[in-house]
Amino acid sequence: MGRQYGRLLSAEIRKMNTEIIRQYDLNKVIILFTSFDGLDSSLLSFRSHYPLIYNLASPSGAYVYETTTYAVRRREPEKEGLLVGVNHFVDPSWPTLPTRNQDAVKNSELRYNNLVALAEKNKGEINDVRMMSIMDVLIEDGGATPRDNNIYRFVAVPKIKRLWVKTPGYLGWTRIDLDALFR
């Protein structure tokens, strides 16, 4: 059943023309892909209606896709084993954006820098449990989480197909085993 379903999805995806995929269809495309390589190719050729950032991970690698209406940049880990995804474009090849001076971007840059510093401080000791504790450090304490705790947090462990999610005000860190979904 799984392989047959995968072939049907692949056939449906081949029919799609990434040049005309509407923005709301991109999430459907991400769900439909049966391989990371196929999804990677699609995202690199995708043009969105507004800037978006996608953080994706698989056992073979992790990337941040920074998308605009005219281009896509795929960011790879800055250092071995470290890829930080936040709410602003980090790839240095982008032109300076007008939003660069907005408070939201400055906040995102601070969160990014704090996460990189915490990763360096914890180098060699980071696993999913340590990463969750890093993600819970407040901004004023050198972390990435605002005092109002309004940031959804994700920790991925691609090699064992595990995802941890924290939804502020609803759930604490919740483990999601993805093995059954990706065989």
Characterization of this structure:
This protein folds into two domains: 1-76, no CATH class; 87-183, no CATH class. Strands 1-2-3 form a three-stranded antiparallel sheet, covered by helices on one side. Strands 4-5-6 form a three-stranded antiparallel sheet, covered by helices on one side. A hairpin with a 3-residue loop joins strand 5 and strand 6 (171-177). It has five helices and six strands. The chain is of the alpha+beta class and 183 residues long. 33% of the residues lie in helices and 20% in strands. The chain has helices at 2-15, 23-32, 36-45, 103-121, 128-135; strands at residues 52-58, 61-67, 72-75, 153-157, 162-167, 171-177. The termini are close together.
Stretches where pLDDT is under 50 for at least 5 consecutive residues are 1-11, 13-25
Give the tally of structural domains.
2
Mean pLDDT over the full residue set: 79
Instruction: Bin the helical content.
Output: 25-40%
The radius of gyration is 18 Å
Quickly give the structural class: alpha+beta
Distance between the termini: 12 Å
Summarize the topology.
Layout: H1 2-15, H2 23-32, H3 36-45, E1 52-58, E2 61-67, E3 72-75, H4 103-121, H5 128-135, E4 153-157, E5 162-167, E6 171-177
